[in-house]
Amino acid sequence: MILTVTLNVALDVTYGLPKIEWRETNRVTTVSCRAGGKGVNVARVLHSMGVDVMVCGLAGGVTGDAIRADLAAAGIPNRLVRIDGESRRTLVLAEPDHATLFNEPGPRIWGEDWGVFLTTFAELIVDCQALVLSGSLPPSVPDDAYAVLLRMAADASVPGLLDAEGMPLRAGLSGRPAIAKPNARELEAVVGRAGTTVPELLHAAGELRTWGAESVVVTRGADGLVASTPDGNWAGVAPERISGNPTGAGDAVAAALVLGLVEGQPWPARLADALALGTAAVRADSAGDVDLDAYQTLRPAVRLEKL
What is the CATH number of domain 2-10+36-87+109-306? Predict the structure, then answer.
């Protein structure tokens, strides 16, 4: 089983529309409402591929109940700890070629709730093959929360993937994740300097490895990804650019990477799967969905280079 942790779960509302007219009335053409948050999206992708997954995290209020109900309807098991606060919502305005996101901060988490979560996590991690820690932290949860969970997983010999930004990423690296997966903007922010070329990104990724990550995979949107691993450095691009909603593409990349970790795939195979699955996710209407037919078509045509 792969355990995904989403401490700041959300109810994702996606409005599809041909074009946003700011300061004007906009007519929405499609509406989607479902459980979300990065770890939930990773679990949804893995579940669609027939992988045994479990979602855990913190959820409260009417929104939290809606999140649990949606996961149950999708057949995705969860152990979401019930909290007093109201879980957040996110709003995605999805135009044909890009998306605009509005993310609420989430509820404050009190000490008792955090203690219950840690107990729940300790029970779950012993039966897992791998761990995914994704997304933002709710207000009042300490910045080193991911590091704490990674150390608990290491004590159970469970490798982890960390997909975060800012201080949760910087502090989480001390937990020594098997894979850290920032995007280029998040990498730039955490190392404190600009860099867009492949050599610059690989140099910055190397810094994250000195801070604790075993491997670092940096996503670059339509420009593909770069990776710094114990087996070498890599750069790859998908065979074609696909129009659609890119909101969940990074989560699909994380799903492919953690599955490759569990299956013991060599790095070239993991990265090719990640590029193909991330690109196929752009064709789907909502984060957490992937076009598996597109994935099968794209996978053999991925271009990957060892540097």
Answer: 3.40.1190.20
